[in-house]
Each structure stands twice: as structure tokens, then as C-alpha cells.
Amino acid sequence: MKNREKVLQVKNLYITFNTFSGKVHGVRGVNFDLHKGETLAIVGESGSGKSVTNKAIMGILSKNANIEDGQILYKDKDLTKFSDKQFTKIRGSEISMIFQDPMSSLDPVMKIGKQIMEAMLVKENISKAEAKEKALNLMAAVGIPEPEKRFNQYPFQFSGGMRQRIVIAIALACDPDILICDEPTTALDVTIQAQILDLIKEIQEERQISVIFITHDLGVVANVADRVAVMYAGKIVETGTVDEIFYNPQHPYTWSLLASMPDLDTDASDELLVIPGTPPNMLYPPKGDAFAPRNRYAMKIDFKKEPPMFKVSDTHYAATWLLHPDAPKVEKPEALTRRIEKQKERQVADNE
Amino acid sequence: MLRYIVQRLIAMAITLFIIISISFFIIHSMPGSIVDDPMLPEDVKLAIEDKYHLNDPLPVQYGYFLKDFLSFNFGTSIKVQPRVSVFDIIKAKLPITLQVNIFSLILTVPVGIILGIVAALKKNRAADHIISIMVILFISVPSFVFAALLQYFVAFKWGLAPILLSTDATLTWTKFKSMILPVLALSFGGIATITRYMRAELCEALNSEYMLLAKTKGLSQVQATVRHAIRNSFIPLANIIIPMFFSILGGSMVIENIFGIPGLGQLSVSSINALDHPLTIATLFFYSLISLLSILVVDLSYGIIDPRIRIGGRK
Q1: Nearest 5 degrees, angle CA A196-CA A216-CA A227?
Q2: Residue (of A157, A209, A219, A155) closest to A186 by Cα position
Q3: A108 vs B218: CB contact, 8 Å cut-off?
Q4: Among the four A55, A142, A304, B3, which has the fewest Cβ within 10 Å?
Q5: Among candidates A58, A84, A109 on the partner chain, residue whose Cβ is nearest the Cβ of B216
Q6: Comparing C-alpha atoms, which of A75, A77, A64, A32 is closest to residue A50?
Q7: Closest B-chain CA to A54
Q8: Is A62 on the interface with B (CB under 8 A)?
Q9: So where are chain A's domains?
Q10: Is there a contact between A106 and B227 if contact means CB atoms under 8 Å apart?
């Protein structure tokens, strides 16, 4: 995995927002690499900066946002220095994005077919007939039955799941290398969610594109991701492969997230873990570890000094002082340990 | 769809009936008589009043009126243009009103839309603030104030344009020049209304999710704005632009009087002043018809412009 070609590198990205009450520190030094053909899931609660990071990659940050520091390297070019014009060139054809709410992300008064063809006709030098053919193929590829008939329909004639398929088709229209999925299944019901996830996975394998998958749903992560980055308060606190994050989490925040997620064995009487308190106010970025005030295992140093990324393995890093050689040995929460055991057993059973 | 139109037309007919009935009673309860020549002998006066059934009780007069009206006999003018059918009078006045108002419309719609787009694109910047101040000024100051100010400064003080409308029958250069001021006075309010709507609608469309998708799929800001945002913001705008097209038929009572335009607006004022009842009711009927029709056309136009209603409504 680590020998794979890096298609995107985000280096020490720092983004603030000007608001009436002051400067909000949305993203505070995020680092990650995206390899060719892999799916990187970025997990975190609302406001942790996962969407902002990706909007910066697409160049669609809101007007009050400032990129204070850092680089986004794509094909040896720094996207943070790009003008809107330069971004227009790479959007769609190199990096594309799908959004959370398929209900509102399609133009309500334009025919579906036209919306899919639009970018092709603008960006690629192809005829209308070719574009139509390509659009019909795309519609079939994303699982729209009767694409010929659907081609001339309007968004309101489609269900939520169908619309999300159309949005995916639009995002793929110009054959991008990177697809950013910003919580693409949040607005859909569970059965449709599974279909859309399968579709994204299928497309990703078929076209060998790299996918950044933003979500707060760990169940989704386990399903689609190769690697996971956990974000909290504008920082990545832990990153690793899916197995590492789910079976050997190191950061107390990851522990809490995993333990607070219900699974098949959870029944109604079980009490799920609750993370006490609320995320910090990013108008005043906290000193030390941002998670410390909500962390049962917090040590004195957590309130004073920010933990660096400690290496767990070649692919697994976590920013917690617990990994420091001098730190006391702390066990994961019991509920989590039990759950991991169970999951491992299940996986072994599945493999047999 | 057809059933809907028929329903609406029936409702319109009932509305019109109520309007003319109310206006009949109001107009006939105005004091004074159409025969006001003090030199006329009393019996001649009585004879004239009898001829028009003016001495019958009001309900009886209403009966006569309805009988004529329902057979589309609107009668003849009594005093403004004696013995000329009111239908012919309105027909003769309509082109004059139309001419001025069409020019006003040609100015209003594009200018309003362009200003609205500029304001929305430059939201919260200098251009937007200047346009917003203009809009507030144009909406809150009545058109006759503008008319008087334009006449005083542009026409009287600076002598750039004539004070009154030229009486040329055809559209000559002199006539066109004399139309500039009334057209301006008529347009300010409309421009302000369209600008305000356009700005609000476009601002909303610019912040929509489909604009974000349009950008991420590779359209430039300009392309995305023209193809998606402006297109979408035009739909609610039909709501105010279509009635404007109809209102050009009606003319403006105030502006026409100020600039001496012998159009429909002036006609209705003079008919009321002269107690020329058939003419007053005919003009009122005409005005009501125009506004009711424009409402109907607006409602129907949504079914044509907006695919959500056009196709969704078929089920």
C-alpha cells in the first residue's frame, strides 16, 4: 500500500473563518496523503473540519474562509494557490465531488440528461451526440433503469436514491481521478444507503479512482474505506488502515467513537457509551490536546502540550500522549475490548 | 387543465359581475346631475333625465343597466364625447396609452433585471448598496412626484425635453422626445420592483446546492450563474413581469394627466368628473378585465415555465 503513487497530498493545512464574533479555527494543520485507487475515509463529528478540508481541495470554500498555511499538492501543483479559473479547469475532470443532499443538489428546472452532459460539452471537445451516448452509458453504469426515458426527465421525477445516482453520474461525467464524497448517504434511508455505497465501491474499483469519503457514520467507514483518518476539532487525531482503526484504536477519541456506536449485538437494554461534554469552541482553539476536557484518560500534559503524531506502525499514527514511552499503560474501555473481540471472531467465522 | 381554465373563467365572470355591480351603485350615488346647464328650462331637464331613466329608483336603473350590459351593449358616452359608443372611445384611446407604456416596458424589464443581477452578484459591495438605495427611493417616492420633478428640472429648468406630450398623430422624432419624461416617470417604480425581486431570487439561487454542484462539475462561476442560477431565478419573476405586460393596457391616471397624454387613464378621470356614467363603468370594466386576465395568465404561465408544474401536474 505505501508503495502506491500518491495522487494528493495535504500538508499542514490551516483554515480559519472570519465571523462576527472573531476568527474561527476550522482546520488546524491537517496532513494526509491519498494514494491512487484507494478509499480514504475521514471521520469526525459535525464541525470537526472534515468538510472544510475537502472544500479547500475543490476550491469551493466560502468567501469568509482563509487558508492561513499549508499546501494541497496535486500533480506537483499547490491547489491552495489556485485561482478560481485554474480550479475550473481541474474541477470535474480531475477532482469531482458529490454532496450530502441529492434533493437540492440538482438544478430543479433542467433535464437530467442535460445536467449530465453539461460539463462534458463545456470541458471536453466532443459533439452533442457523443456526449449523449456517454451520458446514457453513465446513467446505465450508476444503475438507472431505462436511461433513454430518464434522460429527458426532470429531477423531481426521481426518488432520493435515484437522484444521488444521477449526482454520482454527473461527478463522473468528465472522468475524474479523485472523487470526494461528502456524506453521500446521510440524507438517504438505510436500504438505499447500502446500494449507493456498493455503487461507489464498484465504480471506484472499476475506474481505479481515488475516493475521499467524508462521514460521521463508522458503519459506513467499515464498509467502504481502505484507510481511515479520524478528525477532531480541526485536526487528524488518528490515522490508519481500516483494520488498525477498528481492531487496534489508540486515541481515546477513537475509542469513544467506536464504543458509542451500536452494532448488531447491541440490544435495547444495553447502554451505549456517551462522550461527555461538547466539542471545543473553535473561536478559541484549545491548548494541548483538544479532546482532553472530555477525555477520561487525560493526563496533566494533555492540557498543556499538544501531542505529536506517534507512530504505531508504518500506516498507523495517533496523536495522544498515551503512546509516549513514559505514559502509564492505559487499557481501552472494557466495552470496546469486548466488541473488538467479537468482531474478530465474526471475521474469522466469515473467512471460514 | 381545460377544466381548471373553465373554472377560472367562471370565477372571473362572477368577479367581474360583482365589480360592475358595486361600481354601478357607487357611481350612481354620486351627487349632481348630468344636466347642469342653469339656462336649461326645467321640463327639458326632466325630459333628458327621463330619457336616461335617471329619475327611476336605483334598483330599476340597475335592471336596465344589467339588461344592456349582459347583451354587451355598453351604451354611448353622454358628456365626454356625446353619442359616441363607449367601446369606440376606449378603442381610440388605447393606442395612445399603449405607445407610452410599451416604451416604458421596454425600459423597465431589461434595466430591472440587469440591475437586479448586478446587485446580487456584487452583494454587500458598493454597487449593491447604490442599487439598493435607488430601489428604496424609487419604490417609496410616488410616480407623480418624479413626474413633477422631471418636468420642473429636465423640461422647465434645463429645457432638455418638452413638458407635455406632443400631439403628433404618428410616432415622429418630436413625439418620441416628448415621450421620454412620461416614460421615465412610469418606469421608475417598475424598475425598482423588478430589481428587488431579481436580487432576492438570484441571491438565493447563488447560494443553492445546485450551484455548488455546477461548480464542482467544472463550470466556471459565470457559466454556472448564467445556466443555473439566473434560469432558476426567472421563474418567480414571471409573477411580477406578466402583470406588467398587461398593465401597459391600462395606463396611468396620474402620469397621463400630468403630461397631458390623452390616453385611457385620463379618459377615466374625465368621465368620472363629467358624471358620464356609461363611460366610467366601461373603463372600470376594462381595467378589471385586464387585471383578472393577467392573474389568470400568471397562474397558467407557471404550468409552461416551470417543469415541476408542467409535468408534475399531468398525473
Answers
A1: 75
A2: A219
A3: no
A4: B3
A5: A58
A6: A32
A7: B216
A8: no
A9: 246-351
A10: no
Chain B residue with Cα closest to A106: B210
Of residues A139 and A102, more confidently modeled: A139
- Minimal-distance CA residue of chain B relative to A175: B217
Q: Are strands A178-182 and A210-215 parallel, antiparallel or unpaired?
A: parallel
Measured at the CA of B10, the angle between CA B5 and CA B11, to 5 degrees, comes to 95
Q: Which residues of A touch B232 (CB under 8 A)?
A: 107-109
- Which amino acid, B137? L
Q: What is the dihedral of CA A95, A98, A99, A100, to 10 degrees?
A: -130
Distance CA B37, CA A181 (A): 87
Above 0.90 for ipTM, yes or no?
A: no
Task: Decide: residue B113, CB within 10 A, 0-12 exposed, 13-18 middle, 19+ buried.
Answer: buried
Q: How do residues A176-226 score in pLDDT, each as one tens digit? A: 999 999 988 888 888 888 888 999 999 888 888 999 999 888 888 888 899
Residue with cell 489508540: A250
Other CB atoms within a 10 A radius of the CB of residue A168 amount to 24
> DSSP state, B123?
T
* Top CATH class, B86-314: mainly alpha
The answer to whether the CB of A181 falls within 8 A of the CB of A170 is no
Prediction pTM value = 0.81
